[in-house]
Every structure is written in C-alpha cells, then in structure tokens.
Amino acid sequence: MALELTIKPDDIRLLCDRVEAAQEGAYAIHKLTDDYPSMTIDDGYAVQAELRQRYLAKGHQLAGWKAGLTSRAKMEQMGVHVPSIGFLTDKMARTESIGIKTSEMVHPRVECEVAFVTKKDLQGPDCTLQDVLDATDYVLPAVEIIDSRFSGFKFDLASVVADNGSSARYVTGKVRLNPRDLDLTKVGVVMKKNGEVVASGESSAVLGHPAEAIAMLVNILAEQDEMLPAGSFVMSGGITEAIPVQAGDAITAEFQILGQVSMTFVA
Ligand code: 0L1
Ligand code: MG
Predict the structure, then answer these.
(1) Which atom of ligand 1 is the closest one to the Cα of 242?
(2) What CA–CA distance (Å, rounded) separates 80 from 70?
(3) Where is each Fumarylacetoacetase-like C-terminal domain found (predicted)?
C-alpha cells in the first residue's frame, strides 16, 4: 500500500524546505494547510519522508520512531482526532547529565513516555498488541521534548505530521525491563518541574496499553511500504499533556517500576 498524494512532488519538496528550515533555524512558521488547504495526512507523511531522506543524506542516523498524540489528554490538548508517527535521529538524543539547549528550539514542551526496544522485525498492516509484546526485547522510561515549529502550537494533523510529529529531543532513563515483568497498563508517572508536580498519569492513557501505540505505528509504517526492524527504539507517546519548559528549568519524571529520568534546560 502506498501513500495517496493530492499535492504535486514539487510542492512536497517546497513544504519540506519550509519545515526543514524552521527546524534547523528554530523559528516558527504558520501551519502548512494555510497555503495548501486540501493537504491530507498522506501528504503530510510524504513531506515527513522527504525530511527523513534529507537528514539521512546529511549524515544523521535513524535512531528509531515515535508514536504521537496517543492519549486522550494529548489529542484534546492539540485538537486532533487520530494518533501520528515520526522518526528519531541520533542528533535528537540527549543524556541526563548535559543541559539541553532551549535556544535550538522554538517553544519546547516535555512529556513522559514508555519506550520499547524490539528484538524481532514487526510488519504491518495487521500488527497487534500481542505481536509487539512478543517482539519486545525490553521497555525503558523516556522523556520526549517536543517542539512544534508552528506558531503558538497551532496546527492540524497534516501539518504536524509534515513537521515530523514535533520531534525535537529525547532522553532515556537507565532501567530496562522485560515487558513480562510488569503490567504495562499500570505504570504511574509523576512529572516535576523545579521540584513541583506539574503532571501525572498512568500508562493506560496511551491507547489503553502503550504496546497498542507501537502496533499502530507499525501499521502506519506499512502504509508507507516500511517495516520496523529488530533492534528498533520506539517511543509510545505521552502519558500526560506536554508541559512547557524554558532555560533554567529542571525536569524529573518519576515512573513506577521503571525509575526516573531527569534533565535540565539551558539557554
Ligand atoms: O509526541 C507527540 O505526542 C506528538 C506531538 C505532536 C503535537 C504537538 O506538538 O503537541
Ligand atoms: Mg511524544
């Protein structure tokens, strides 16, 4: 199955130019559908695929994938009705010990996620939650730093998909667990900003079970004639709404069973 495009290849490249420049220059643009009102989600994935090719051609390594907008809280916060996917590169990975630069982003927000690492290939279009659990090597805690390139975080699904699901940075914690050793629907998480609780939730908020989000991601990949190879790192989506951060902030995400992920932000 291939993407069905309504936008001409030249315009896909032009839209990719806009998104790429905004990502690399850390500036806000207006949503793409303002100029291309008929743009569809498939068109958005075509822009995202072009963006991925461009980053890989520049020497970035594909580090994994992310499911996004996978909780009711996130969908309501952003006013969209279905989840999305995006790609992750090695240039987006950050560690707990080094301050994350806000000057490289437009208006970053943080969200707590359960991440998966696979040990078997996963192929859509009929990938199920059980297929994902059978293919999972381990799960680990993660914080995604999203950064929509659209002014005021105002967009629609086609635009946000083109902007690679607002992917910007991510940090993982140290604990790795076999998915059979915990109930993945009952991982509670509390996020603190500068010591104050700013968000909390439970992993069942992610489509009922975070592995369901990974199955959804595999099935969306299949629509682009792609599969998820063994050894992939995949984030399953924010458990709570995303919280804005600025230089000087310290974030700690405390996951039940999966431990803690901490980071600081600098200018
Ligand atoms: O990771 C995600 O849930 C995708 C977020 C895309 C929309 C946003 O920028 O909030
Ligand atoms: Mg996310």
Answers:
(1) 10
(2) 10
(3) 106-265
